[in-house]
Amino acid sequence: xxxxxSPISSVVAAPANGSRWxxxxxxxxxxxxxxxxxxxxxxxxxxxxxxxxxxxxxxxAVDLTQRFSVPVWAEGGAWLHPLGTDNLGRDVLARLLNGxxxxxxxxxxxxxxxxxxxxxxxxxxxxxxxxxDSVVMRIGDIFLAYPFMLLTISIIAILGxxxxxxxxxxxxxxxxxxxxTIRGSVLSVKTxxxxxxxxxxxxxxxxxxxxxxxxxxxxxxxxxGTVRAANYIIWESGLSFLGMGVPPPTATWGMMLAEGRNYIxxxxxxxxxxxxxxxxxxxxxxxxxxxxxxxxxxxxxxxxK
Length: 305
Fold this sequence. Notes:
The protein is an all-alpha fold. It has a single domain (about 50-285), classed as MetI-like (MetI-like fold, Orthogonal Bundle). The protein is about 70% helix and about 0% strand. The longest helix has about 35 residues, at about 90-130. The chain is elongated. It starts with 6 loop residues before the first helix and ends in a 9-residue tail after the last helix.
């Protein structure tokens, strides 16, 4: 019997469906924190994508005659460099826009890679159990036992700093977070009646996982991915600050902080502006994650106004 064509399968199907996700979307639109976070994040994304089309200044172009040009709001500032220049005469606005692309690319790419690895291993571990579960979880314990930042720095020191290596290292260091989260949800869902009925009519493991398990366990992982994205931006900035992130001359927010700290007294905008950019980005992601948590978790869900 082909489970996908059986009339019984439609009866025992998991309760997750299109109407449920529409209801979730409606709840998200009523969450003030989710709307505020989404608005700020959309503005940042549009600025990151469209900014370089409007402001075409090369972020790595050196002009020593324009060193430490002050921002336009300060006395002596000019619209030639609206946010000023750094110690090498490089335009701060262009570097902020380039740093935004790097930070958002690292955050979203790391979420995707670590989520794919973590969800796959977590579902396999929770669904099959036994020796498979033991092996996956013990591997996860090894990763958790090693300090995250030390593990990341050690691997980057071996592989060398680059954008691709940074994404892979962050994903490799954090996949266990997703695996443990989704494993617990799978252990609960796989004992439900609709999963038992799917087994009884001869559905394959692949069909049960894709049709019944995943739709009912992805909500907490999506919320977790939103929260972790903010952490990835902090870690990317921290590694770039230490010189272990994306190598120069590519501009990143962490590198701008590292270069500007020596001039904080006479050129405070060099460290203030990238700091504000990091703060706003993390704030928007955390607000969005807080709103999604309220929507997806019935135990934490508040009345949305």
